[in-house]
Specification:
This protein is an all-alpha fold and about 350 residues long. The protein contains 13 helices and 2 strands, in the order E-H-H-H-H-H-H-H-H-H-H-H-H-H-E. It has one domain (about 10-320). The protein is globular and about 55 Å long. The two termini are about 30 Å apart.
Length: about 350
């Protein structure tokens, strides 16, 4: 039996950390404007910022998913790393929101199991509005490794499996009734899968991304304007979520190949590391400070709290996570013989 060695984690990509931090603070600032002014435009901009997280997650987790597809035993480490990273901070923030916003125990249970978006009564009166996006992430973490392992057993490549998830979600969006398409968990897994596809096909998609980004961004602004005028429009919601995925994926592709010089890289790294607590706690901080707080004080308090939370709560958890093990002599430079060469230097999650 071959020896097992800890895998070497690649270094973080500062430009993607910057994108993650910008998206988190973008949501926080847009919600500040919405709460203090009632601006529907600000609420729409927060939705655009949220959409950036999905392809970014798929991209930075792609190398781990590819490892799981080659070695099914790695799924345990994948789950432990994901859940230790995401669940404890979420449960703290969500429980605090339940107390602050008078969430019912049944509603807390739905949010704790990430089923709130599929239960109409709870979905329509969620005490923790941002939880829908976290539900999409967690269900992707749970299902995608299983899909890839099952696909590998019938000789379906990880790329084909991800494309199948995207295709099924697209069909479901067309036939799905109602005006909750954007937050309905089963219909949004394709946005994260798109980031995975971008990772695998990076060399092929990079020349196209510089055209896709401006075109999709303009279309996204048009769709946003239409949704503000007609929030119940199924067609415009469909267009919005797909254009947001294309724009976000294109931005991730382009930024993944850009280097930042010091000290910009250090600042980006810091923003990336506190982005999760910023996203989790910004509504709570805003509620505690009150609607009359100035934007400067809000940002300062939010940043200080989230930095403290990261240092005191998240870092110990991150240090406790298991590492992946790879067989001695295994070639980790290629996702598989059926896929393109794995690009180097991916941001670990």
């Amino acid at each position: 039996m071959m020896d097992r060695l800890p895998s070497t984690a690649p270094h973080r990509i500062a430009s993607l950390d910057l994108l993650r931090g910008a998206a988190a603070f973008g949501v926080a600032l847009a919600h500040f404007v919405y709460v203090t002014t009632g601006s529907t435009t600000a609420e729409a901009l927060s939705a655009i910022c949220v959409e950036l997280f999905f392809p970014l997650s798929g991209f930075v987790l792609a190398s781990q998913l590819l490892l799981v597809s080659r070695d099914a035993s790695a799924i345990r480490v994948f789950y432990l790393r994901r859940w230790l990273r995401t669940l404890p901070p979420y449960l703290v923030a969500m429980s605090a929101a339940a107390i602050l916003f008078n969430g019912h125990p049944i509603e807390w249970l739905a949010h704790a199991t990430f089923t709130q978006s599929i239960i109409p009564d709870i979905r329509d009166r969620s005490f923790y509005a941002i939880a829908w996006s976290l539900a999409v992430e967690e269900w992707f973490y749970l299902l995608m490794p299983v899909i890839m392992i099952a696909g590998a057993r019938i000789r379906v490549t990880p790329l084909t499996a991800a494309l199948a998830v995207i295709a099924i979600a697209q069909i479901a969006k067309v036939v799905a009734p109602g005006d909750h398409m954007r937050i309905f968990t089963p219909l949004r897994l394709d946005a994260i899968a798109a980031g995975f596809v971008a990772y695998v096909l990076l060399d092929q998609l990079r020349p196209l991304a510089k055209y896709f980004l401006p075109i999709s961004a303009v279309g996204l602004l048009v769709a946003t304007s239409e949704i503000i005028s007609n929030p119940a429009s199924h067609a415009w919601q469909f267009i919005f979520v797909d254009l947001a995925t294309v724009a976000g994926t294109s931005a991730v592709i382009l930024l993944s190949q850009r280097d930042l010089s010091q000290p910009a890289a250090a600042v980006a790294d810091w923003f990336g590391r506190i982005s999760y607590p910023v996203y989790l706690f910004h509504l709570l901080v805003l509620a505690l400070l009150g609607p009359d707080v100035g934007v400067f004080k809000y940002v300062v308090v939010l940043t200080l709290f989230c930095t403290s939370f990261h240092v005191l709560f998240e870092i110990p958890l991150l240090k406790s996570r298991p590492v992946y093990l790879v067989s001695e002599g295994a070639d980790l430079s290629s996702p598989s013989s059926q896929l393109t060469t794995e690009p180097p230097s991916r941001a670990p999650e």
